[in-house]
C-alpha cells in the first residue's frame, strides 16, 4: 500500500507548483496556455499537467504528442479512487471466474506471461472526458484539456485465451473487471467496469503486462491492465485483480450511472446492448479526432516562408482515411500528407507545409475523416459529461 506520506513526498519532490490552486480552463483558453504553472512530477513520471491531486489526475502536455508513441513517463494518469495500492509483482493474483465461468482459477504474473501466447498492439488510450475542459457551456468533472490520452505498444495475453481457460458458458453476457484501487474514507463506489462478451472475445482485447517494451508504470496499472482497442479508456481497467464472466448486466454505479452518452447523438457503430437505457447508452468507441501539435494560438509566422502544420489523428480503429487542413477558417481545405501507418488503433501523424502569401491573420483548422466516412464536427455536440469532443481546432496565426 502506498502510504499517503510516501505519495505526498513524491509529489513534493516534483515542484513547488502543488501549492498553486488549480486553474480551471475555460472554453476560450487555448491549449498550452497557463499549463506550465501546473506542471508536477508523480514518482517515476516526468512533469505532467496536474488537474487533480487526490485521486491523481494528470494530463500530458501538448509537446508529448510530437512523438507517435507516448513515452511511459509522460503518459497521462487518471484514477477515480483515492486509495491506490502499490502491488508487488510477486504478490499479485488475477482471479478469473464469475457465474458464467465453468472453471474459476487464479493466475500469477509469471503464469500470465508464460502460459498464454503474447500479443502486441499499438493502441490509443483516451479518456472519455478528454477535452471536457473545453466544453462550452462548462460541465463538471476533471477539467481536461487535450492531453488525457496516449498511444502505446501494449503486450499481453489475449483476454479471449484467459476466458477460454475459465470455460466461458454460452449464457455469458458481459465480462466485468475490478482493480486494486478503492475509495478511501469516502463512500465512492468501487470502480468496476464491464464490456460485452463479443468485445472481450475480440483478438485485440488484451490483459496487458507491458507498455512500450517495459513493465507498466505503477500509475498506469502495474502489474497488468485491460486493453480495449478502439474503446475509450474507462474500460481499460488498471491493476486488474479480477475478471468475472456475468450472466446479467453489471449494475454498479460506474456502469449504470457514469460514462453514458445520450442516444443518437454520436456516430457510433459499436453498441453495448445489455447496458442500453431509455435515453442513454454507455460510451463505447472513440470518435474520429485530430490534434495540431506544431503551432500555437497567436504564433507569428514568416510571410513567404514555409510553416509546417503537423499533428496526429486517430479513431476507433476503422483507420484514418484523410486529414485536411484549412488556413482560412474552413472556407477551403487541402489534403495533408499521412505519415507512417502503425496500425489502425494507433495515432497517425500527418503534416502540410503552408506558405502564407501575404501578411495578416490565418485561421488554421484540421479535419480528420476515417474509413467509415465519419469526420470531426464543426460545432460541439453538447452532452452533460463533456464526452466525445472532436470539434475541429481553430488556431489563429499571424504572418509578418
Ligand atoms: N483500476 C482503475 N482502472 C482504471 C481507472 C480507475 O480509476 N481505476 N480509470 C479508467 C479511466 S476512466 C481511464 S481514462 C484510464 C486512464 O488510464 P491511464 O491512467 O493509464 O492513462 O484508466 C481506466 N482504468
Ligand atoms: Mo476516463
Give an account of the 3D structure:
With 400 residues, the chain is mainly beta. It folds into two domains: 93-282, Sulfite Oxidase, Chain A, domain 2 (Alpha-Beta Complex); 289-399, Sandwich (Immunoglobulin-like). Helices cover 8% and strands 30% of the residues. It is built from five helices and 25 strands. It has helices spanning 4-12, 109-114, 159-166, 197-200, 253-256, and strands at 39-40, 48-52, 57-59, 77-78, 94-97, 105-107, 118-126, 149-158, 174-179, 192-196, 206-211, 214-215, 225-227, 240-246, 260-262, 280-282, 289-292, 300-301, 307-314, 320-326, 334-335, 337-338, 348-354, 360-370, 395-399. The strands form six sheets. It has a five-stranded mixed sheet. The protein is globular, with a radius of gyration of 21 Å. The N and C termini lie far apart (56 Å). Mean pLDDT is 92; it is low at 1-30. The ligand Nc1nc2c(c(=O)[nH]1)N[C@H]1C(S)=C(S)[C@@H](COP(=O)(O)O)O[C@H]1N2 binds at residues 75-81, 125, 127, 179, 181, 191, 220-221, 233-234, 236-239.
